[in-house]
Structure formats: C-alpha cells, structure tokens
C-alpha cells in the first residue's frame, strides 16, 4: 500500500523490538490500584479464627497518612485468559488470538510512545532525568510530556487491540463499563493500570471464549474513549495528532485519537429495487441516483471526495411523505445501486439502519447505540449509507414530555454528528432520515438535513397506470391499452418538469410572501432581491435561520453538479473510480454547470415550501389536539353540573 503525504510508516522491526516487554506484561507484573477498587480482593490466610495474618499498615510520617497503602497484587493476564474456559486445559484458538492481539497492541503502543518521545523534547528530558541533570525549570514541561505520552500510548493500545480483534467478534456483547484505573503518570504506569483493569473485567465477565473476545474488545473501546476525552484538555499532543502512522503488516492506520476500523462490508439481505421500479418521486429518485454515484467518487488514499471539496455533496437528507408513497422503495433502490457499484469496483460497502429497537430503557444506552451507528457509517475505510426510518418515533423533540430519555439522547447524538463542531464531511457516506410526520421531528435536527426529498409517490394518471402494471406483474392476459408504459418515468424529462414547478411557491403561506416581495422589488434577478425574499420568509417563519440559507446554497451547488456520472465510469472502474484524486477532480470540474437565478429561486422555494408544510402540519395537529381537549373539558363540565343538580 502506498502511503499518503500525511502518513509515516511505523516500521515492523521497531514494533517487534518491543515484543519482549509486551510479553513480560502479559506474563505478570505487580500493581497496586490507585483509582479503582479491586472487585474480588485477595483474602489473607488467618493464623486462627478472627485474627488476621497481617495488620493494616498506617503511616505515621506527616504527609503520607492519606496515601493508599494497598499491597500490590499480581496481574497475570495470560493465566486469566487461559482460564476463560475451565472445561479445557489446552489453550483454545480464540484464547491464543486474544493473547497475540494484546501482545501486538502493546508492542505497537510502546513503539508509538518511543516515536513520540523522539519527535518531542521528551526523549532528551528522559535521558537528562536518568542522569540526574534535569533542569528545575523544565520539570513542569517534563511532567506534561509524560502525561501526553501516557495518553498516546493508552489510546494506541486500545485502538490497535480493538482493530485486531474486530474480525473475531461474534453476536455476543458485554457491557464492561468504563476504565476506572486510568493513570497518566507515564506510559509504563498507564499500561499497568489499563492491564490491571482489563484483568478485573475478564475475571468478572469472561466466562467463555465468546465473552472473552467481547469483553476484551469492549475494554479496548472504553480505553480509547477515556484517552480521547482526557486528551481534549492536554497539551503537547500536536506531534501525534498532526500526522498518521501506518502499520503495514496489519493494514492499520493510526490517526490521532480517531478509532481505526476494519474496512468490512455489511452483508445486505434486503430486496433491491431498480430505478424503473420506483414510480413517481421524480426529484427524490433522481437525487438518490446521483448521490449513489457521487459516493463512488470517494478517494480512499486522500480520504476525500471531489464532490465534497467542490460543494455539491449531500451529507444528510430528509425524505418525507405520506404513508405508502415509496420511502422504503427509495431506500431499497439507493442501497441496491451503491451495493452494485461497490461490488463492481471492489470497494467495501456498509449499510446500517437505526430503528426503534435501538432505543433502550437503560440510561445512556440509546445514546451509545446512536453513536456506534454513526461511527460505523462514518468509517473512512468504507462507502457508507445510514438510514433512520421513522425518525419522528426515534428522535424526540427537546422539551417534549412525551419523549423518553432514550429518544432525547438520540436527538443529541444526531445533532452533534450531522452538523456539530467536530463534524468532518469526507464524502464517503451519507445519512438519510425518513418520516411520514416530519413536523414531529425536532426543528434543529430537521434543519440539519442538508437536502429535502419529497416522497410523494405516483401523482399523474400515467404514474398510476405504470404502478398498476408494475405490481400486477406479467402473469395475466389483461391488455395494456393506449399507454406508453414507463414513458412518464423518463427521469430527465420528469425532473425538469418537477424543478420547473418550483419556480413559484406551492404552499399558501409562502405564496403570500412571494407576492408581497415581488410587488416591492419586482422579478428576483439579483442577489439583493433574492436576499430580500429570504428576509421576507424569515419574517413569516422565525425558524428560517442561517442554517436554512446554508442548506439552500448547498442544494444550489448540487444543482450546479446537475449531471449524472456516465454509467460506463461505474461499469469500468479504470475510467474514473481507480484514477487518482486530482484526475477525478478535473473530470468532475469539466462537467460542472454554471449557477443560474432560476436554480436559486427554485431551491429557495423547494426548501421554504417544505418548512412551511412542516409548520402548517405541526400547528394544525396542535390546534386539533387543543380543540379535542377543550371539547372534553366542556362535556366533563356539563356532566358534572348535571350530576350536582
């Protein structure tokens, strides 16, 4: 594998040089827990009933009376691992795999710690400290660098261990809890604390080989999370976070405090739909087809998509429509297209759906499930497609007393992931949110959907003839009659008509704003007039904020990319997919179209129409509820007075 400009190789000989130290840690060491409490403290033998073998030592030295005096207990991970299945005296293949993975991860972490020391003043300060020549003025810096090294080594150990174990994970899952014995004095102490904590978790949870793998992997994930959280307030980490290191033998790339993951595809069992099997929904179908091809332009070496750089990539979208209009069919079509393209190119494709079964009654678990879903789809080593079907049931409105704590957690995770301060759009994945009742979705979360797909199903007489013929199949003798089958589904002609329909607003509330602004400034043919129209919309709906303008401009940029990548580029990967990033960028640049006033007006109206539609529905639902409640109160009052009289 060729390294990118920001990657360096972590040499195999450097890693293997740390094997003896890693093996020694596996065999055993002594550690006195300083933060955590041992779950099963060893009991000393008694000389006689009621008389302990040794008295607890209490220091009389001033200043030491509050220090922990717990005796160090031996940590023997190899023995612990091999005792996971008491029914067999031989080491099982999975036990050997765990031992090898821990040793390999420890060696990689120690090699990274050594490299960090050489790239910073830490190496020189360590040598000066050993020689007794450490300047007093640099003791503070020395301590901070040791802490940074401990964070680096802890995260790399957890990262490498989770990565190496990921191919061996099964259906078993274990909730191991957080890493309590997390120490940052220096790299050696940090590893001692982490391995002591792992030993405790294995004793508690690893009853068989499946639980052994799940517990070790869960520990690795928790160790990474803890190290990444602590690193946010630590200094001297630039040399580690500013570059990437590649371990060739494992195909592992370490990028700061970002978890690495095996680029594995998910096996799809859904029924795929062809584009001609989706009747109606012309704009939604067209944009889904374009987005499927956009994803394939992602460059795995550069970890960036030319469409994301040029501004025409759809990272999140909202598909809304009445029940039965084809949202599921649209998902099946888009997933099928991406799956077909990825199989042809040999790319790993990962599809995941976040459903109502991911909402858990345990506090914090729903948020963890949502974060795991997002991270899995965001994995830069795959082409990802994540869907959230019926999002109005899954993500609760903030302040809604009927929403569960789990739904509120999910809303917070999705808001941060889709447009948070740490959101990075590489262009390798997209998230689709689908709902029959988008007005019930939290306003801020809904506005994080960069594009709107109106899934309105069949609309015209021709659409209904086409869908009837499609669903009836071919096992009948009923004549078709005077109709050109599927001609109305010709995508370019249908899309052009659909876009043209948005030259004027379709919602009554927005049409009033359109007429008023048009009377004031005339035709909307300049940026100033368009801005006046946007301000008029904001005065009519205060939820029309700066984020709405960003979503509109992003949609306009997508329209500027209003071309479909040629099918032959997908069928023959050498023509486009396997070209280098700069060549892809140049090829896409040649196809880009100029932005016109008509495009901007249509996209403003499309977006604003959807917001007015959501607001009107939401208000009507609320009013209907209040009317019903008032009617109940009136009837209750009438019956109450009749009863008294």
Automatic annotation (TrEMBL):
Segments crossing the lipid bilayer: none
SUPFAM superfamilies tied to this protein: P-loop containing nucleoside triphosphate hydrolases
GO molecular function: ATP binding
Residue numbers spanned by region Disordered: 36-69
Keywords of this entry: ATP-binding, Nucleotide-binding
Superkingdom per UniProt: Bacteria
InterPro entries the record matches: ATPase_AAA_core, P-loop_NTPase
Residue span(s) of domain ATPase AAA-type core: 321-454
Name under which the protein is recorded: ATP-binding protein
């Amino acid at each position: 594998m060729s390294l990118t400009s920001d990657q360096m190789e972590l040499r195999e000989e450097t890693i293997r040089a740390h094997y003896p130290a890693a093996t020694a840690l596996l065999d055993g060491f002594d550690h006195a827990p300083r933060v955590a409490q041992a779950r099963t403290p060893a009991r000393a033998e008694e000389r006689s009933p009621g008389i302990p073998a040794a008295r607890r030592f209490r220091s009389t030295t001033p200043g030491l009376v509050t220090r922990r005096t717990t005796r160090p207990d031996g940590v023997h991970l190899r023995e612990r691992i091999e005792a996971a299945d008491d029914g067999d005296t031989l080491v099982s293949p999975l036990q050997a795999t765990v031992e090898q993975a821990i040793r390999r991860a420890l060696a990689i972490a120690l090699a990274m710690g050594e490299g960090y020391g050489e790239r910073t003043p830490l190496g020189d300060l360590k040598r000066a400290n050993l020689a007794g020549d450490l300047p007093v003025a640099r003791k503070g810096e020395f301590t901070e660098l040791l802490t940074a090294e401990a964070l680096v080594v802890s995260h790399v150990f957890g990262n490498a261990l989770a990565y190496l174990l990921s191919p061996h994970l099964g259906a078993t899952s274990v909730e191991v809890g957080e890493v309590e014995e997390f120490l940052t004095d220096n790299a050696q102490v940090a590893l001692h604390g982490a391995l002591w904590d792992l030993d405790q978790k294995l004793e508690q949870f690893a009853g068989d080989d499946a639980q052994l793998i799940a517990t070790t992997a869960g520990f690795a994930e928790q160790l990474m999370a803890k190290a990444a959280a602590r690193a946010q307030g630590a200094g001297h980490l630039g040399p580690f976070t500013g570059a990437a290191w590649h371990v060739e033998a494992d195909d592992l790339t370490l990028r700061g405090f970002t978890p690495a993951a095996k680029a594995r595809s998910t096996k799809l069992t859904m029924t795929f739909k062809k584009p001609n099997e989706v009747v109606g929904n012309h704009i939604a179908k067209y944009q889904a087809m374009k987005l499927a091809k956009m994803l394939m332009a992602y460059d795995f070496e550069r970890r960036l998509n030319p469409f994301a750089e040029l501004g025409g990539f759809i990272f999140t979208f909202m598909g809304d429509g009445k029940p039965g209009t084809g949202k599921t069919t649209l998902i099946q079509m888009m997933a099928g297209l991406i799956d077909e393209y990825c199989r042809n190119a040999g790319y790993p494709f990962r599809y995941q759906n976040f459903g109502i079964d991911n909402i858990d009654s345990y506090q914090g678990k729903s948020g963890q499930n949502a974060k795991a879903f997002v991270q899995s789809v965001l994995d830069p080593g795959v082409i990802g497609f994540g869907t959230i079907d019926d999002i109005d049931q899954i993500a609760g409105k903030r302040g809604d007393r009927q929403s569960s704590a789990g739904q509120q957690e999910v809303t917070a995770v999705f808001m941060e992931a889709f447009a948070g301060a740490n959101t990075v759009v590489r262009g390798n994945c997209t998230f689709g949110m689908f709902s029959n009742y988008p007005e019930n979705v939290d306003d801020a979360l809904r506005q994080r959907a960069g594009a709107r797909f109106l899934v309105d199903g069949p609309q015209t007489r021709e659409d209904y003839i086409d869908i009837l013929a499609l669903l009836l199949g071919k096992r009948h003798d009923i004549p078709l009659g005077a109709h050109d089958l599927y001609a109305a589904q010709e995508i370019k002609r249908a899309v052009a008509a659909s876009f043209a329909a948005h030259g004027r607003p379709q919602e009554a509330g927005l049409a009033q704003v359109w007429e008023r602004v048009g009377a004031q400034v005339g035709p909307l043919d300049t940026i100033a007039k368009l801005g006046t129209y946007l301000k008029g919309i904001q005065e009519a709906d205060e939820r029309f904020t700066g984020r709405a303008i960003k979503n509109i401009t992003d949609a306009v940029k997508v329209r500027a990319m209003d071309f479909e990548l040629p099918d032959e580029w997908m069928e023959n990967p050498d023509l486009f997919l396997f070209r280098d990033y700069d060549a892809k960028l140049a090829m896409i640049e040649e196809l880009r179209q100029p932005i016109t006033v008509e495009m901007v007006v249509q996209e403003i109206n499309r977006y604003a129409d959807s917001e007015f539609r959501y607001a009107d529905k939401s208000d009507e639902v609320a009013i209907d509820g209040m009317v019903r409640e008032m009617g109940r109160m009136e009837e209750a009052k009438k019956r109450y007075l009749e009863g008294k009289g």
